[in-house]
Specification:
mainly alpha; 0% strand
């Protein structure tokens, strides 16, 4: 009797799925055609957790964060998986864009690397040299920001692991939103020239903290303004420190 390759339990000979672990029974040999067909089905399937996660994080991020924390684990992509999915997509576009696309925090963090002009490098040249470290900075910032958010939002009652979930979704979605805004510059290059893009980005960057954190942590009264603002200031400071440290290592 044939057995499941995943759980080693007996399976029905003509069955499509294992009735023990639920895994799909694969009989055909892996080829390039099968590989790309499966990739396309995963990414472009409208029922895929990827697009459900992207969409809900855009207009109802608290539903995703609180849902995952409370046990909704099948509906949405896992927070770390989502972060790496968007980061990989972002990294690919960076390679193809020849420097036209920037990470969401570069304009802020570069202010922390504006030392004297000993390097002779412009701001854009400094950004280009530091850019390979950007994803590392983002990943390193998540546990630190989770400690900070646990302190700021201690009344919400979430533990550190739950804050890690919230901040992984938060940073992943910031990357995704910045990617979307950067693509607007392709058909409308005048956006950046007229500083419209910069102000649009500022609204999205600053506003999303409130969109996610106010309902997720169920803030009330004056704390709906003070707490997200304090979190944003700390986040920018931490990212700036990472960039400053990277500049010391790479540019001097």
């Amino acid at each position: 009797m044939p057995t499941c390759l995943n759980c080693k339990q007996p399976i029905i000979e003509d069955g499509q799925f294992c009735h023990h672990c639920g895994a799909k029974i694969v009989r055909e040999r892996l080829t390039l055609w099968v590989f790309f067909a499966q990739l396309g089905q995963t990414v472009f399937n409208v029922d895929s957790g990827i697009w459900r996660t992207v969409g809900h994080l855009c207009y109802a991020p608290a539903r995703v964060c609180r849902g995952y924390i409370e046990g909704v684990r099948k509906r949405y992509l896992k927070p770390v998986a989502y972060l790496f999915f968007v980061a990989g997509l972002y990294g690919l576009t960076l390679l193809l864009s020849d420097g036209e696309i920037r990470y969401f925090h570069e304009d802020f963090a570069l202010g922390f690397t504006s030392y004297d002009d000993a390097t002779g490098l412009s701001e854009e040249e400094r950004a280009r040299q530091l850019r390979p470290l950007a994803l590392i900075f983002i990943l390193l910032s998540i546990p630190i920001l989770s400690l900070i958010s646990r302190l700021i939002y201690r009344r919400a009652g979430f533990n550190l692991a739950e804050h890690l979930v919230i901040n992984a979704y938060y940073m992943g979605q910031l990357l995704f939103l910045n990617l979307v805004l950067n693509f607007l510059k392709v058909p409308f290059p005048s956006l950046e020239e007229n500083t419209i893009f910069y102000y649009l980005f500022m609204i999205v960057f600053l506003g999303y903290a409130w969109v996610l954190q106010v309902p997720t942590f169920q803030l009330r009264g004056v704390w709906t303004v003070i707490s997200p603002l304090l979190f944003l200031l700390v986040m920018l400071f931490i990212l700036g420190l990472f960039y400053g440290f990277g500049a010391e290592l790479l540019l001097y």
